[in-house]
Amino acid sequence: MSGAAKRCDTALGWSAGRVTVAGRALLCAVAVLVFCGPLVTVFSGAFDNTIDPTRLSLLPGHPSLVNFRVAGARGIWHYLANSLIVAGGALLLQVAVSVFAAYALARKRFRGQALVLLAILTTMMLPEEVIAIPLSLVLGDVPVVHANLRGTLLGVILPLGAWGFAIFVMTEFMKEIPVELEEAARVDGAGELRIFARIVLPLCRPALGVIAVFGFTMIWEQYLLPLIVATDPSGFTLTVALASLRSDDQVGPGVVLAGALLALLPSLLVYLSLQKSFLAGITTGAIKG
Amino acid sequence: MRRLTGTLTPWLFLVPALVLFALFKFVPMGEGIRLSLYDVRPYLGDEWVGLANYRTVLTDPRFQDAVGHTLLLAAGTTLGSMLIGFALAVLLEGHARSLWFVRSAVFLPVVAATAVIGEIWRLLYYPAPNGFLNSLLSWVGLGPWPFLDSPDTALWSVMAVGIWKGAPYDMVLILAGLAGIDRQLYEAAAIDGATVGQRLRHVTLPALRPVVTILLTLAAIRGLRVFTEVYVLTGGGPAGSTDVWMTRIYSLGFERNELGVASAGSVVLFLVTFLLTVIIRIYRGRREATVR
Q: Taking every annotated instance into account, which residue ranges of this chain make up the domain ABC transmembrane type-1 (chain B) (predicted)?
């Protein structure tokens, strides 16, 4: 075998020749610039005290924290707190709801199971945007309890509490746990909750990572929901509040970018620390979905 | 008693999920269908109008334009993301640690929230000659372009952002598909004297067909319901040139308070999405059956 074309470990047959490696490195550099460059401008813009939108660059010209001070005066920390409360609350609820539901769906056989699965599948085929208008009315007067959740963070958290994707990922995973472990515990006289909490749940840790990462991203991504739940700007999450920072004539783009940076950092941290779960979830999620 | 608790146990575990789904998915879904058949008048009581709302929304030229934009945007974003995602995947395929690093970096746009990305790109697109992208363009002798500021270029600019965020996601799935290809097929092609181009066309691409179908399904459905990027980037403007299905429904429902008409538009969107999903699933099922 000879020549670059004969390598068989990649689709393009990349060889280790000097010219090929140099060309490939150049293309990689372009790719990184195109896909990360815009995010880097956020960092430099947020710490740059020039207020000119035409002066955006990859490095801050005059480093300072003034943008964060101005954004702070416009309530950015309050919006960040809103976002973190929503993310924390909704994520806890989502994970709890998913493991409970998955335990029933994966470890039990009961009448109506197919119907429950169908119902969950329906919610997954129902784009959340489609029900935005009636959902805003329902949140104004929740059936049965007749509570008004408009203008509260709970109104953002509760609709995010049950997510079909997370339930399905969890269910698939729980099906793999050997039934012998459960039976042994049952013979020893362990109750249902004890089996759930002491045997099944600890074995689900990898799947918990996947649904936590995806849940967080899904919640942080929310835009329409917090927008329709809020009755005044004080209920906005950070992502929604960015638009009102932008339309504020008194502040420059540096302040918007300071807000954008604060909204970006949690996503980046979660991704970089749980990258494996993330990529595993994308491939399994897409194939199942 | 024991048997009763046995049948009750699964339902007790399911209660939280079912209650939340019922209150925040199924009740709104039913309510949406009901509203779409009424002239919704707060405090005056709703009036039954049959299918009039559907007629209003489907014959509204602004709505028809918005549907056209939605389809164009969905098709362009889907195809663009897939092509660039494929290019990225073949460029970055391999086990070297440096490649893993580049892949992680390129993937970052997928992780960032859409609204944040919209705000960033609004600034990058700044339409003055010395805006960020325009100054880059001037280096290669192009521009300045108005980007989001002109009805002629706004939709394409929105599409570019969608592709920028979508391509790395497609890359991950295509990479997974590439990893599943049997290396012996490449070796056999090499022994037969096939060039890399021929190998790509006759071995790699056919093997990626299932991945491509999945990507198409996901992208088509996501494309139809696009809201956040358009709302943040242009708000549907200038002059309605980037108005899409969901921004139209949003302004009908929340800005003009035409809840009935907006609900009718939502129900149509749901039906189209639903039908599309079912059709692709059936098509996929039949195709898999014929292949085997």
A: 67-280
Q: Which of B262, B250, B270 is nearest to B36 (CA)?
A: B262
Q: Does residue B80 sit within a domain?
A: yes
| B28 occurs within a structural domain | no
Fold for the domain defined by A75-288: MetI-like fold (1.10.3720)
Domain map of chain A by residue range? Answer: 4-64, 75-288
- Number of domains chain B contains: 1
Q: Is residue B280 part of a domain?
A: no
**Could you list the residue range(s) of the whole structural domain that residue B147 is in?**
60-257
- Cβ-defined contact of A129 to B126 (cutoff 8 Å): no
What are the 10-residue block averages of pLDDT along chain A, 289 residues in total?
58 81 92 92 82 63 82 90 96 95 90 91 85 91 87 94 92 87 84 85 87 92 93 91 86 87 93 80 59
pLDDT digits (tens, 9 = 90+) for B185-227: 888 888 888 888 888 888 889 889 888 888 887 888 888 989 9
Task: Choose from B2, B4, B23 for mutation: most chain A CBs within 10 A.
Answer: B23
Q: Which residue has the tokens 């990225």?
A: B88
Which residue in A41, A131, A270 is closest to B25 by CB distance?
A: A131
